[in-house]
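input
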Amino acid sequence: MTTASMTRQDNQFELRFLSLFDDGRGWAFPCDAHGQVDLDRLSDRARNNYFFAHSVIGRDVTLPRICAVA
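output
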């Protein structure tokens, strides 16, 4: 997905990885309604966190959820 193809509506969702051990902790990344994260739009730090969150699914965080942003 290119930056130009992201619409305002796409930014109304987050892909959330919630901690299995600490309520209220985890990671959230902007995504579209299908859970697709545009990695090119993330900062280097956010991109690294995204890859890390994926690597610890089931050990430290839940499967990611697509959540609407209010």
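quick obs: The two ends are 24 Å apart (CA to CA).
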